[in-house]
Specification:
Elements (H helix, E strand, L loop, with lengths): L2 H17 L6 H8 L3 H7 L3 H24 L5 H13 L7 H6 L7 H20 L4 H21 L3 H17 L7 E3 L5 E3 L1
Antiparallel strand pairs: 1-2
Helix pairs in contact: 1-2, 1-4, 2-3, 4-5, 4-7, 5-8, 5-9, 7-8, 8-9
Length: about 190
């Protein structure tokens, strides 16, 4: 992808984090990047194309970040909780998928599919690390909900209170089958 396309996606992501799918226009993106609106259209013919590309890229970045951290053998509950906490403490403070996920029913199909794909990726990775489907859903709902509430109340400590209790609860009731997988020297997984 070209530098211009990446700059356009960066600007769109910042605006999506603040206002969702309806929180940006091609004109605003062009001003943010310092190009003409026709240049935005050249790289992304429609707003739907741009938003879907932003979510695909975001999904890939999150998946790669999580994989890097899980490769160290750390507990997946802590990895995911810390990842979303990092988003909360970043400049933009919101996950673009959490913002748009709340309005999935109103999103164009191309964008809704990508947002759903993000959340499915999150759940699949949690289950792959040994959490039950129920625990994975509970964790994802808590960390995304805590992100939203903390932003709405402008009180970031809400995130730590909500997720701290959940992490303790999950750790106290995890079955041996739900324990995080450890890496073997050959790179495969073995149970702890």
């Amino acid at each position: 992808m070209s530098d211009a396309a990446n700059a356009i996606m960066d600007a769109a992501e910042r605006r999506i984090r603040k206002g969702g799918f309806n929180g940006f226009s091609f004109r605003e993106i062009a001003v943010d990047v310092g190009v003409k609106s026709s240049s935005v259209h050249y790289h992304f013919p429609t707003k739907e194309n741009l938003a879907a590309a932003v979510v695909r890229r975001y999904t890939q970045r999150v998946a790669e970040q999580i994989e890097r951290e899980l490769a160290t053998g750390e507990d997946p509950v802590k990895v995911w909780t810390r990842a979303f906490r990092g988003t909360l403490y970043s400049v933009d403070r919101m996950c673009p998928c959490a913002v748009m996920g709340a309005a999935t029913g109103d999103l164009p199909p191309e964008v809704a599919v990508e947002v759903q794909r993000f959340f499915k990726m999150c759940l699949d990775k949690l289950v792959a690390e040994g959490l039950s489907s129920e625990r994975a859903a509970e964790l994802l709902a808590t960390i995304t909900g805590a992100l939203v509430v903390s932003n709405a109340l402008n009180d970031l400590s809400n995130y730590d209170r909500a997720t701290g209790e959940l992490v303790k609860a999950i750790e106290s009731v995890r079955k041996p089958a739900e324990a995080p997988a450890k890496k073997t020297q050959a790179g495969g997984r073995r149970r702890a």
